[in-house]
Amino acid sequence: MSSKAGPSAPRGKKQRDPHTQQRIKSNALKRKGQDEELDKLRRDIAEFNPSTPITTFTELPLSSRTLRGLRSSHFTTPTPIQATSIPISLQGQDVLGSARTGSGKTLAFLIPLLERLYLERWGPMDGLGAVVLSPTRELAIQTFNALRSIGGHHTFSAGLVIGGKSLKDEQDRLQRMNILIATPGRLLQHFDSTVGLDTSGVKVLVLDEADRLLDLGFLPTLRAIIQHITPGGGGPTSKSSAQVDQATSITTTTTTPSGRQTLLFSATQSPNLVQLAKLSLNSPVTIDVDQHLQDGTSSVDSNATPGQSSTSTSTLMPAGLEQFYAVVDLDRKLDALWGFVKSHLKMKGVVFVSSCKQVRFIFETFRRLHPGLPLMHLHGKQKQPTRLDIFQRFSQSTVALLVCTDIASRGLDFPLVDWVIQLDCPEDVDMYIHRVGRTARYQSGGKGLTILCPSEEEGMKKRWEEKGLEVKRIRIKESKMGQLQQQMQNFAFRDPEIKYMGQRAFVSYMKSVHLQKDKSIFDLTQLPIEAFAASLGLPGAPQIKFIGQAHQKKNAARGKLQQEDQKDKAQGVKVNVAGEKETETASAKVGAQVELADSESDESEVGSGDEDEEVDSEEELEAGKVDGDSESDADDDDADAKDDVLTSKKDKQAVRTKYDRMFERKNQGVLAPHFSALVTHDGVVQDGDEDDGFLTLKERDHTLEAVGLGGEGEVEGETGDATSKLTSEEMLSKRKLKQGESRKAMLKLKSSGHKVIFDDAGGAHEMYEMEDLDDFAKQGDAEAQRQEYLAVNREAMKEADVVDRQVAREKRQEKKRKRKDREREERLAELQGSDEDDDEEGGGGGFRVTLGRPSDGSGSDSGSDTDSGDDDNDRNQSNSTRPTKRARFDGGSKEGKSGDVEDEETLALRLLQGSA
Ligand SMILES: Nc1ncnc2c1ncn2[C@@H]1O[C@H](COP(=O)(O)OP(=O)(O)OP(=O)(O)O)[C@@H](O)[C@H]1O
Question: Which ipTM did the prediction report?
């Protein structure tokens, strides 16, 4: 073996080209500069006196990157909640913050989140460092946009995890995220199923709209998430300690960098927050800005018991908000709304109702009435792309009317809303505050109008007074009211879908009232039920029964949370059905009698009649972690067969109109295909419509026994037995019956299952009448006649068959063509997307990697948001207004002219990339 002779060649320093040298040098300088900045920042934070009055963000100990982000988003002056809470959060304290709606709570937690990761020198390889949990997808998206807006000069990667898209797509990129904005169900799903996702390093956990998270039954999910984030299970790990000088409200802290910090924010605080605070917060500092402003007491209290602070009774309303209410009979509410809309055609308004079925009904009927301003609707049973599309279109509109459920009541920041109309009474004052808070946001003005039924007025007024809210009563002149009943009847008469929607809207409204816990406001027995049904165009009030089973399922989580609260109240809630039955007239309260055998469990669901949709049900289901929130499709589905029953009520005594007869006809096949498809042979209609909640429709078929009435928890309609055996004849008026012999003959024959044909004179004959035997014999041999008959008909059938096949083929081809078109469009969109997302790997999803370079403001293009699976109502939405391109990034501009979310996420790639 030989070795190389001579000394080995000297290993001198590798010569680098001047450009590389320059880069290394400048990087070193940058690092040095950053080190110095970080040291200075740490010092400034430690020395900062949280009670120092702040007028600009620059007075806060913030990094230059964050300050640049704020500046480019035009945020210069911190709002009170920001000025008060940010210094404390920066010092590593857990915070329980509350401030009025629209007061800037989002930045109050995003700024400290960015700062904390920056101080920790968090880098792309460090994994997950911060998690923000939002109760709804829309809010998560909005928060993501805000993060993108102010975090554009940082180098963190951020992602949106909100479900509604492929889990796999999200999983592929999840592990590279530093910050996640998520809805709880989907996040937990990832925690459970995404291999390699390390959650132990999470430094900041934010619970936004915390009380809403609880309302929606997310407590078990949150508990599980916190357990995942905290190695060794549950409980906060922060070692920071706070000393608050009560005299000066100065909080000094010592923070252990490795500790997890939790920030919990809400516009209102409920006692339920105690549970969540105990679960997640460690020696929190309670910050109640409104209390502070109101009475000048310390706004910062590290000793306050979360959820029991004075905030719960002192939440103030935005300064620019004017609040009104009007008392309108239930059956005139739509008239009132219509009149209001017609006299405010230049407004941007949000209308809140209590269930998605009502949203659909109002949207569909008002759309047909052409209100004169763009109409939109938003509820939780729409598919995700639809929700986003509507959310963005409404944000960008200056004149529009959005009809929605409480899904839009919290956190959503629609710019420049003039009016918030609460068409259905909110479940409580907190909900009222959240709803009305969609207007008059951050120093802008706005008005709120709440429509109350006469029976709701006293109770609601009392609740407002208890919270110190000043809501002025106004009267709506009769001349300003619409007169819609006739038109509604027409719609229902012509379009069975509308009638069906009306029935469902009716029942879901009744159910929502029934489920409300505050019975001093919500009293089902006081409602003019028949008149209400008529106002929806229905011929009579559908009959309802509520059984607790569905509610129990729905409320598994929420029930636990609220049970204590409910028990006391359950007694006062019960409605005595039997009593009513005796005293009410035929049409008064039938169909809404409520048996509250399971009232306690029902009660625990109060306020949720609406919220079937509220939650990320999809993700919850996927995750198999359905919580109480999910009055979602899940419970809708499973509840259908056994639960509430709706039947067309008939009053035999009353004079019937042509509408009545139309609705009561046997051939319910004229109803929507989905309706008829569900009619089973025994006359029970099972509503398997995924988005129809808790209803089972029982077709009131005149030849069929009324099925399923009675039994535990059912509501027994007054007319249940009386109408159980109606014949066709009984359903027609005498006048009609006398119209002619042939008609009568037809009816007789029809009812006996025969087909009739009419001769030239109008006489009715059986379709297959027996020929006279002699005449038949004269025509020849019977067998020969039979063969001849068969041959002729065989030929006819062959011809018919050719035509049928042709038609079927054309239909198939048409279908195929449409599918191909659709696929082509999708491919095109994907291609555009991948062209544009050149920094990104993989395809779409509600989730993007947002590593990026500092923005030079040049922005990027975007593909349009695909809307592949919109719900039925999407047909009605014009796509023409969708933003497809976006050349400019407008950050947190008040106009909110953002492109679609995917655009924005793509844009974020560039904005957040690289160091500043
Ligand atoms: N410092 C600021 N300067 C100017 N505008 C701000 C500032 N902070 C927040 N805003 C704007 O105020 C509006 C409301 O902010 P945000 O949505 O954070 O309010 P919120 O308190 O979270 O409301 P809600 O309780 O309804 O969720 C947003 O449009 C936001 O851009």
Answer: 0.98
